[in-house]
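Course exercise 7: structure representation. Students receive a sequence record and must write out the corresponding structure in token form. The form below is the worked example handed out in class, using Flagella basal body P-ring formation protein FlgA (248 residues). Read each field label carefully; the graders check that inputs and outputs are placed in the correct fields and that the protein name is recorded exactly as given.

STUDENT ID: A-19
EXERCISE PROTEIN: Flagella basal body P-ring formation protein FlgA
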Amino acid sequence: MRIGQIFGKHRFFLGLLCLVGVNSVSHATGDTGGTSWHQQIEQGLKGHLSHYLNQMAQDMEISDYQIEVDISYLDKRLEFAACPQPVQIETLTSLDLGRNHIKVACKTKSWALNVPVELNIKAPVVVLNQPVPKDIELQARHLDLEIHNLADLRSGYFLKKENVIGKQSKRGLAGQTVLNGRLVLPALLVKKGDRVIISASKGPMSVKMPGEALNDGREGRQIRVKNLRSERIIRATVEESGVVSVNF
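STUDENT ANSWER:
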């Protein structure tokens, strides 16, 4: 899955037992500057997780986005002492966009909480600007960008129009539909009877030869191709318009 062209879920990792400094504290007095334990948790989690969400958006090559770290209700009736050192944030599993649980602890005061958090990135994704019927080849005139919460798009999405142009609708779709890989087929790049270039490679060696497509072919799909030099029929992968590849 190519970053920035994705239509699936995104995951990232927090380091085990990451120390998050919330206040400048005096170990001699235990002074926390008046910050309560729940404020330490909120500030620590938001600062730490915001860094990871920003990094995630950059890795996805999203330039226009908004991040949100929503921390579920913390029961302030709990009588925890403020932590005289940076709280520890601990996770043993990968984190998704959406709902997660993170352990936050203060070792010196012997308290720990499993805190529910929502991690969101809002960014433009590709949508239809009009209804389209089944089997239509999608063009730029059919598409717009619209801001959505990526955490809500569990079926996937496209971030760039160019990743959709040329693909074909699998069924009739309504306007404003967020497009994903389940709703479109790869672009039809080769038609039955087309002359194609067969690119055959093995390690650093590669050869090219003429061929004839015996089936229609979509990007990334295998089709039957006749080698016009040897007359052999082979299976090859459609790479681009008029080009198929095979390993030998």
